[in-house]
Design brief:
Residues 1-25 form the signal peptide. With 301 residues, the chain is an alpha+beta fold. It has nine helices and nine strands. The protein has helices at 14-25, 30-55, 59-78, 87-104, 115-139, 142-148, 210-213, 216-222, 291-296, and strands spanning 162-167, 173-182, 188-192, 197-200, 229-231, 237-239, 247-253, 257-264, 275-279. The protein has a five-stranded antiparallel beta sheet, with no helix packed on it. Strands 1-2-3-4 form a four-stranded antiparallel beta sheet. α3 runs antiparallel to α4 (87-104) and α3 crosses α5 (115-139). The radius of gyration is 22 Å and the shape is globular. The N and C termini lie far apart (53 Å).
Length: 301
Protein backbone atom coordinates (compact mmCIF):
# COMPACT_ATOMS: atom_id res chain seq x y z
CA UNK A 1 0.00 0.00 0.00
CA UNK A 2 2.82 2.43 0.85
CA UNK A 3 4.43 1.70 -2.52
CA UNK A 4 1.39 1.91 -4.77
CA UNK A 5 -1.08 4.30 -3.13
CA UNK A 6 0.42 7.57 -4.47
CA UNK A 7 0.89 6.32 -8.03
CA UNK A 8 -1.83 7.09 -10.54
CA UNK A 9 -0.32 4.74 -13.10
CA UNK A 10 -0.68 1.79 -10.72
CA UNK A 11 -4.45 2.10 -10.31
CA UNK A 12 -4.96 -1.40 -11.73
CA UNK A 13 -3.50 -2.93 -8.56
CA UNK A 14 -5.89 -0.99 -6.32
CA UNK A 15 -8.64 -3.59 -6.57
CA UNK A 16 -6.27 -6.35 -5.45
CA UNK A 17 -4.79 -4.28 -2.62
CA UNK A 18 -8.25 -3.23 -1.48
CA UNK A 19 -9.57 -6.78 -1.54
CA UNK A 20 -6.62 -8.04 0.50
CA UNK A 21 -6.83 -5.19 3.02
CA UNK A 22 -10.58 -5.65 3.39
CA UNK A 23 -10.31 -9.42 3.83
CA UNK A 24 -7.59 -9.34 6.48
CA UNK A 25 -9.15 -6.28 8.12
CA UNK A 26 -12.00 -8.49 9.32
CA UNK A 27 -9.57 -10.09 11.78
CA UNK A 28 -6.66 -7.65 11.96
CA UNK A 29 -7.77 -4.08 12.77
CA UNK A 30 -4.65 -2.31 11.37
CA UNK A 31 -5.60 -3.56 7.89
CA UNK A 32 -8.77 -1.46 8.11
CA UNK A 33 -6.56 1.61 8.36
CA UNK A 34 -4.78 0.42 5.22
CA UNK A 35 -8.15 0.38 3.43
CA UNK A 36 -8.81 3.94 4.57
CA UNK A 37 -5.37 5.05 3.41
CA UNK A 38 -5.96 3.50 0.00
CA UNK A 39 -9.35 5.24 -0.19
CA UNK A 40 -7.71 8.61 0.50
CA UNK A 41 -5.20 7.91 -2.28
CA UNK A 42 -7.99 7.11 -4.73
CA UNK A 43 -9.81 10.29 -3.66
CA UNK A 44 -6.67 12.21 -4.67
CA UNK A 45 -6.81 10.49 -8.08
CA UNK A 46 -10.44 11.57 -8.40
CA UNK A 47 -9.51 15.19 -7.67
CA UNK A 48 -6.67 15.12 -10.22
CA UNK A 49 -8.94 13.65 -12.87
CA UNK A 50 -11.65 16.21 -12.09
CA UNK A 51 -9.15 19.02 -12.73
CA UNK A 52 -8.09 17.46 -16.04
CA UNK A 53 -11.71 16.98 -17.07
CA UNK A 54 -12.46 20.65 -16.34
CA UNK A 55 -9.51 21.67 -18.52
CA UNK A 56 -10.55 19.48 -21.47
CA UNK A 57 -11.66 21.37 -24.57
CA UNK A 58 -12.80 18.39 -26.63
CA UNK A 59 -15.86 16.29 -25.86
CA UNK A 60 -14.02 13.01 -26.43
CA UNK A 61 -11.22 13.93 -24.03
CA UNK A 62 -13.75 15.18 -21.50
CA UNK A 63 -15.73 11.94 -21.67
CA UNK A 64 -12.58 9.86 -21.22
CA UNK A 65 -11.68 11.90 -18.13
CA UNK A 66 -15.22 11.58 -16.79
CA UNK A 67 -15.09 7.81 -17.31
CA UNK A 68 -11.72 7.59 -15.53
CA UNK A 69 -13.09 9.61 -12.62
CA UNK A 70 -16.09 7.29 -12.38
CA UNK A 71 -13.81 4.24 -12.42
CA UNK A 72 -11.71 5.65 -9.58
CA UNK A 73 -14.85 6.41 -7.57
CA UNK A 74 -15.91 2.79 -8.01
CA UNK A 75 -12.51 1.76 -6.64
CA UNK A 76 -12.99 4.11 -3.70
CA UNK A 77 -16.45 2.78 -2.91
CA UNK A 78 -15.32 -0.86 -3.03
CA UNK A 79 -12.64 -0.12 -0.43
CA UNK A 80 -15.40 0.41 2.15
CA UNK A 81 -17.06 -2.95 1.48
CA UNK A 82 -15.84 -4.67 4.66
CA UNK A 83 -14.92 -1.75 6.91
CA UNK A 84 -16.50 -0.99 10.25
CA UNK A 85 -17.88 2.29 9.00
CA UNK A 86 -17.08 5.51 10.81
CA UNK A 87 -18.90 8.77 9.96
CA UNK A 88 -16.06 9.86 7.67
CA UNK A 89 -16.15 6.46 5.92
CA UNK A 90 -19.90 6.73 5.35
CA UNK A 91 -19.44 10.24 3.96
CA UNK A 92 -16.73 9.12 1.54
CA UNK A 93 -18.76 6.10 0.43
CA UNK A 94 -21.84 8.23 -0.19
CA UNK A 95 -19.86 10.91 -2.03
CA UNK A 96 -18.34 8.27 -4.32
CA UNK A 97 -21.77 6.69 -4.95
CA UNK A 98 -23.30 10.05 -5.90
CA UNK A 99 -20.39 10.72 -8.27
CA UNK A 100 -20.77 7.30 -9.90
CA UNK A 101 -24.49 7.74 -10.48
CA UNK A 102 -24.03 11.25 -11.86
CA UNK A 103 -21.35 10.04 -14.29
CA UNK A 104 -23.56 7.21 -15.53
CA UNK A 105 -25.99 9.80 -16.89
CA UNK A 106 -23.22 10.60 -19.40
CA UNK A 107 -22.90 6.92 -20.49
CA UNK A 108 -19.33 6.59 -19.31
CA UNK A 109 -19.44 2.80 -19.72
CA UNK A 110 -18.96 3.31 -23.46
CA UNK A 111 -15.60 4.99 -22.83
CA UNK A 112 -14.34 2.78 -19.99
CA UNK A 113 -15.44 -0.88 -20.40
CA UNK A 114 -14.00 -1.77 -16.98
CA UNK A 115 -16.77 0.19 -15.29
CA UNK A 116 -19.66 -2.06 -16.30
CA UNK A 117 -18.64 -5.26 -14.42
CA UNK A 118 -17.46 -3.27 -11.40
CA UNK A 119 -20.77 -1.43 -11.11
CA UNK A 120 -22.48 -4.65 -10.06
CA UNK A 121 -19.99 -4.97 -7.20
CA UNK A 122 -20.55 -1.31 -6.25
CA UNK A 123 -24.33 -1.82 -6.17
CA UNK A 124 -23.80 -4.87 -3.95
CA UNK A 125 -21.72 -2.82 -1.50
CA UNK A 126 -24.34 -0.05 -1.31
CA UNK A 127 -27.11 -2.62 -0.85
CA UNK A 128 -25.28 -4.30 2.03
CA UNK A 129 -24.00 -1.13 3.69
CA UNK A 130 -26.94 1.15 2.94
CA UNK A 131 -28.57 0.88 6.36
CA UNK A 132 -25.23 1.56 8.07
CA UNK A 133 -24.81 4.69 5.96
CA UNK A 134 -28.36 5.85 6.73
CA UNK A 135 -27.76 5.41 10.48
CA UNK A 136 -24.57 7.46 10.35
CA UNK A 137 -26.21 10.13 8.18
CA UNK A 138 -29.06 10.42 10.69
CA UNK A 139 -26.45 11.17 13.35
CA UNK A 140 -24.49 13.67 11.21
CA UNK A 141 -26.46 15.30 8.39
CA UNK A 142 -23.42 17.30 7.22
CA UNK A 143 -22.40 14.11 5.39
CA UNK A 144 -25.34 14.74 3.07
CA UNK A 145 -24.18 18.25 2.21
CA UNK A 146 -20.71 16.93 1.34
CA UNK A 147 -22.24 14.25 -0.90
CA UNK A 148 -24.51 16.72 -2.71
CA UNK A 149 -21.49 18.95 -3.29
CA UNK A 150 -20.12 16.20 -5.56
CA UNK A 151 -22.78 17.22 -8.10
CA UNK A 152 -23.64 20.77 -6.98
CA UNK A 153 -20.43 22.39 -5.67
CA UNK A 154 -22.22 25.64 -4.80
CA UNK A 155 -24.61 24.00 -2.33
CA UNK A 156 -24.95 26.14 0.84
CA UNK A 157 -23.30 24.92 4.03
CA UNK A 158 -25.22 23.79 7.13
CA UNK A 159 -28.41 22.80 5.32
CA UNK A 160 -31.29 21.73 7.62
CA UNK A 161 -31.74 18.20 6.28
CA UNK A 162 -34.83 16.17 7.14
CA UNK A 163 -35.66 12.58 6.29
CA UNK A 164 -38.74 12.16 4.13
CA UNK A 165 -41.56 9.73 4.85
CA UNK A 166 -43.59 7.71 2.37
CA UNK A 167 -47.25 6.84 2.83
CA UNK A 168 -47.62 3.11 2.13
CA UNK A 169 -50.69 1.41 0.64
CA UNK A 170 -51.67 0.25 4.13
CA UNK A 171 -51.94 3.87 5.25
CA UNK A 172 -48.81 3.73 7.42
CA UNK A 173 -46.05 6.32 6.94
CA UNK A 174 -42.55 4.92 6.83
CA UNK A 175 -39.24 6.72 6.68
CA UNK A 176 -37.43 6.56 3.35
CA UNK A 177 -33.78 6.89 2.35
CA UNK A 178 -34.55 10.30 0.80
CA UNK A 179 -33.43 13.48 2.55
CA UNK A 180 -34.36 17.06 1.64
CA UNK A 181 -33.34 20.52 2.77
CA UNK A 182 -34.53 24.03 1.91
CA UNK A 183 -31.52 26.28 1.42
CA UNK A 184 -31.17 29.99 2.19
CA UNK A 185 -30.99 30.52 -1.58
CA UNK A 186 -34.63 29.44 -1.93
CA UNK A 187 -33.74 26.12 -3.60
CA UNK A 188 -34.72 22.67 -2.38
CA UNK A 189 -31.94 20.06 -2.30
CA UNK A 190 -32.73 16.34 -2.19
CA UNK A 191 -30.65 13.17 -2.11
CA UNK A 192 -31.52 9.49 -2.12
CA UNK A 193 -28.83 7.71 -0.11
CA UNK A 194 -29.53 4.30 -1.65
CA UNK A 195 -29.71 5.32 -5.32
CA UNK A 196 -27.17 8.17 -5.19
CA UNK A 197 -29.60 10.51 -6.95
CA UNK A 198 -29.30 14.25 -6.27
CA UNK A 199 -32.11 16.64 -7.18
CA UNK A 200 -32.30 20.43 -7.23
CA UNK A 201 -35.87 21.68 -6.93
CA UNK A 202 -36.98 18.16 -7.80
CA UNK A 203 -34.91 17.96 -11.00
CA UNK A 204 -31.68 16.05 -11.72
CA UNK A 205 -28.66 17.67 -13.35
CA UNK A 206 -28.82 17.51 -17.13
CA UNK A 207 -27.01 18.35 -20.36
CA UNK A 208 -27.71 21.09 -22.86
CA UNK A 209 -30.22 20.24 -25.60
CA UNK A 210 -28.65 19.49 -28.96
CA UNK A 211 -30.01 22.75 -30.41
CA UNK A 212 -28.05 24.77 -27.83
CA UNK A 213 -24.91 22.64 -27.93
CA UNK A 214 -24.57 23.00 -31.70
CA UNK A 215 -25.39 26.73 -31.76
CA UNK A 216 -22.53 28.77 -33.32
CA UNK A 217 -22.18 31.00 -30.23
CA UNK A 218 -21.86 28.02 -27.89
CA UNK A 219 -19.35 26.30 -30.19
CA UNK A 220 -17.32 29.51 -30.49
CA UNK A 221 -17.03 29.90 -26.71
CA UNK A 222 -17.05 26.35 -25.35
CA UNK A 223 -16.07 24.12 -28.27
CA UNK A 224 -17.76 20.72 -28.16
CA UNK A 225 -17.48 20.05 -24.42
CA UNK A 226 -20.49 18.70 -22.52
CA UNK A 227 -21.53 20.79 -19.53
CA UNK A 228 -23.47 19.63 -16.48
CA UNK A 229 -26.41 21.94 -15.79
CA UNK A 230 -29.33 22.52 -13.46
CA UNK A 231 -32.57 24.33 -14.25
CA UNK A 232 -33.29 27.68 -12.58
CA UNK A 233 -36.70 28.86 -11.44
CA UNK A 234 -36.95 31.15 -14.50
CA UNK A 235 -36.44 28.19 -16.85
CA UNK A 236 -32.83 29.00 -17.74
CA UNK A 237 -30.10 26.37 -17.46
CA UNK A 238 -27.01 27.06 -15.34
CA UNK A 239 -23.74 25.14 -15.12
CA UNK A 240 -23.48 23.21 -11.86
CA UNK A 241 -19.70 23.70 -11.76
CA UNK A 242 -17.56 26.70 -12.70
CA UNK A 243 -16.09 26.76 -16.21
CA UNK A 244 -12.86 28.73 -16.15
CA UNK A 245 -13.83 30.01 -12.72
CA UNK A 246 -17.25 31.33 -13.79
CA UNK A 247 -20.80 30.00 -13.94
CA UNK A 248 -22.84 30.28 -17.14
CA UNK A 249 -26.57 30.52 -17.79
CA UNK A 250 -28.24 29.49 -21.05
CA UNK A 251 -31.59 30.58 -22.42
CA UNK A 252 -33.00 29.63 -25.81
CA UNK A 253 -35.24 32.27 -27.34
CA UNK A 254 -37.33 32.56 -30.51
CA UNK A 255 -35.66 32.56 -33.88
CA UNK A 256 -32.87 30.17 -32.81
CA UNK A 257 -31.48 32.83 -30.49
CA UNK A 258 -29.23 31.58 -27.71
CA UNK A 259 -28.54 33.87 -24.76
CA UNK A 260 -25.46 33.00 -22.70
CA UNK A 261 -24.70 34.92 -19.52
CA UNK A 262 -21.46 34.69 -17.55
CA UNK A 263 -22.10 34.93 -13.79
CA UNK A 264 -19.16 35.79 -11.58
CA UNK A 265 -19.68 34.87 -7.91
CA UNK A 266 -18.95 38.38 -6.65
CA UNK A 267 -18.48 41.59 -8.53
CA UNK A 268 -15.66 44.09 -8.05
CA UNK A 269 -15.90 46.54 -5.15
CA UNK A 270 -18.02 48.41 -4.28
CA UNK A 271 -20.61 46.02 -5.84
CA UNK A 272 -21.01 43.09 -3.42
CA UNK A 273 -23.31 40.97 -5.58
CA UNK A 274 -22.54 38.72 -8.54
CA UNK A 275 -21.67 40.42 -11.81
CA UNK A 276 -23.34 39.31 -15.04
CA UNK A 277 -21.96 39.61 -18.55
CA UNK A 278 -23.87 38.62 -21.66
CA UNK A 279 -21.89 36.85 -24.36
CA UNK A 280 -22.68 38.26 -27.78
CA UNK A 281 -22.15 36.79 -31.27
CA UNK A 282 -19.49 38.37 -33.50
CA UNK A 283 -22.01 39.81 -35.96
CA UNK A 284 -23.41 42.03 -33.20
CA UNK A 285 -20.18 44.04 -33.25
CA UNK A 286 -19.75 44.41 -37.00
CA UNK A 287 -19.48 48.07 -37.87
CA UNK A 288 -18.67 48.88 -34.24
CA UNK A 289 -15.20 47.35 -34.00
CA UNK A 290 -12.50 46.69 -36.61
CA UNK A 291 -12.85 43.25 -38.31
CA UNK A 292 -9.85 41.79 -36.44
CA UNK A 293 -11.29 42.76 -33.06
CA UNK A 294 -14.69 41.41 -34.06
CA UNK A 295 -13.04 38.10 -34.89
CA UNK A 296 -11.12 37.85 -31.64
CA UNK A 297 -13.38 39.70 -29.19
CA UNK A 298 -14.01 38.16 -25.77
CA UNK A 299 -17.79 37.78 -26.37
CA UNK A 300 -18.66 39.86 -23.28
CA UNK A 301 -20.76 43.03 -23.15
Amino acid sequence: AEEHAPELWSHAVMLLLGELAGFFGQWHAPCQEVSRKLARAVRAWVAQTEDRMAAARKAEEQQLRRAAKCLFQVYELLLFARLELRPADAGALLRAWVGIQNARAFRVEAHEPQIRPLLAAAVDVVTRRGLDVVSLVDADSSLLTDAVREVLPAVPADLPWFRRTILQDDGVSRRSAVYSADGPDGRRYSINVLTGTVLLDGLPSRQLPESMRTHPLFCRVFGDVRLELCQLSNGALQTTKPVGGQLYEFWEGPGERLAITEVRPSGPAPSPGPSRLELVPPEALKGVLPPLLVRWHSHCM
